[in-house]
Write a structure and sequence with these properties.
The chain has two domains: 53-156 and 283-340, Periplasmic binding protein-like II (D-Maltodextrin-Binding Protein, domain 2), CATH 3.40.190.10; 157-282 and 356-373, 3-Layer(aba) Sandwich (D-Maltodextrin-Binding Protein, domain 2). It has 13 helices and twelve strands. The strands form two sheets. Strands 1, 2, 3, 4, 5, 8, 9, 10, 11 and 12 form a ten-stranded mixed beta sheet that branches. A two-stranded parallel ribbon has the order 6-7. Helix 7 (217-230) packs parallel to helix 13. It has helices at residues 8-44, 65-75, 87-97, 112-117, 178-181, 197-208, 217-230, 242-247, 258-265, 296-306, 309-319, 326-331, 361-372; strands spanning 53-58, 78-83, 104-105, 121-122, 152-164, 191-193, 234-237, 253-257, 271-274, 280-290, 322-323, 352-353. The protein starts with 7 loop residues before the first helix and ends with a helix. By secondary structure, the chain is α/β, with parallel strands linked by helices. It is found in: Periplasm. Keywords: Membrane, Periplasm, Signal, Transmembrane, Transmembrane helix, Transport.
Length: 374
């Protein structure tokens, strides 16, 4: 039945309301279509790529573009690269799509166990890898994959303190995490802190002197309060801008990943990097094969190619990466390493630890959100 209106004003109001509702519905349908398209894209895309091709998911700063181009030229195998900005983003994509239809991934160590448990990874045939005996044993048989059945380490790194010589002319007042967590010992007005909740929690454990393999509710509350107090002298939380903050003199002290700070050290002699005496977080990038991959011959051809001495050295120099391959790391010039006595066999290497998955992602997120929203 047609709606009756008492006057033109009521009619116009009704029409306007009707139009607004339809616009909202169209807006919702548009975004639902975008989300559905994103999920389906990875599923259907493999039907439209050449058979002699590989699909790879990785961080943007792990394999130099020239290596991928050279591999394509040398082998005739086309490489399709998908980049992700966090391990959480990667596993979320897996959980949503169930199958990314990719062949190779370069994830961090702590995400490997969940990927194995959910059946997303294929076992690696060590007999088809010609570089196993060149890997440092210190990076093998780790707790997240004890026999390296599903993963092989390719690069490693550490968290530490970056600072400027011009501000700290006599050096840092101490080589300790006290400089970022203890208000009485913070040596400057503001610092830059990592924006990765998992990494930040591990550093707080080092400062507090607590065991990282088991944590109770009271300890989690203490960590949250520590971050809340620290917030007053943190000028920025970031995972990618530490080098810029140092070179621009925005902050004289930053917490960050070694490789990102050392890249800036190559062209700025005012910068320095150190690992605090309490020890720090060991980060390991790994090669894994997706369970859905049906291209074993191409996969192993690619893996052996990027572990080649020349190829790996190229990436290490381009991005200041630390390789897990002995012959490459032994020849890597010190300026690309940027820190003393932290290599396998050296005294500070024993202070490096991975952070086992003792906390759920929800527990980690709850701590981070609680103090950031305060």
């Amino acid at each position: 039945m047609m709606k009756k209106f008492h006057n033109n004003s009521e009619k116009q109001s009704y029409i306007l309301s009707f139009v607004k509702i339809n616009i909202r519905l169209l807006f919702i349908l548009f975004w639902l279509s975008c989300i559905t398209g994103f999920i389906l894209l990875s599923y259907v895309s493999h039907y439209f790529v050449p058979q002699r091709s590989l699909s790879i998911y990785m961080w943007s700063d792990k394999i130099d573009e020239s290596i991928l181009q050279k591999f394509e030229k040398d082998t005739g195998i086309k490489i399709y690269v998908n980049y992700y900005e966090s391990n959480e983003e990667l596993i979320t994509k897996f959980e949503i799509a169930k199958d990314l239809n990719c062949d190779i991934i370069l994830p961090s160590e702590y995400i490997i166990q969940p990927l194995i448990q959910q059946g997303f990874l294929k076992k690696i045939d060590h007999s088809r890898c010609d570089f196993i005996d060149r890997l440092y044993p210190e990076f093998m048989n780790m707790s997240f994959d004890p026999a390296n059945e599903y993963s092989l380490p390719i690069y490693w790194d550490v968290l530490g303190l970056g600072y400027t010589h011009s501000y700290f002319q006599d050096g840092l007042p101490s080589n300790s995490w006290n400089l970022i967590f203890n208000k009485k010992q913070v040596p400057c007005k503001q610092i830059s802190m990592v924006d990765d909740s998992r990494e930040a929690i591990f550093l707080s454990l080092k400062y507090l002197g607590w065991n990282s393999t088991q944590l109770n509710t009271q300890q989690l509350q203490t960590i949250e309060e520590l971050f809340l107090a620290q917030k007053s002298w943190v000028g920025a939380y970031t995972d990618f801008q530490q080098g810029y903050f140092l070179t621009s003199k925005t902050y004289p002290l930053v917490v960050g990943q070694r490789e990102r700070i050392v890249r800036e050290m190559l062209t700025d002699n005012d910068l320095a990097f150190t690992i605090p005496d309490e020890g720090t977080l060991l980060l390991i990038s790994n090669i894994v094969i997706c369970a859905s991959s049906q291209k074993d011959d191409l996969v192993y051809q690619f893996i052996n190619y990027i572990y080649n001495h020349e190829m790996m050295m190229l990436s290490c120099k381009e991005f200041c990466l630390l390789p897990t391959v002995k012959d490459v790391l032994e020849e890597l010039p010190q300026e690309y390493i940027g820190v003393q006595d932290c290599l396998p066999g050296q005294k500070n290497f024993k202070k490096l630890q991975i952070f086992p998955n003792v906390l759920t992602q929800k527990q980690i997120n709850d701590i981070w959100i609680a103090f950031k929203s305060f």
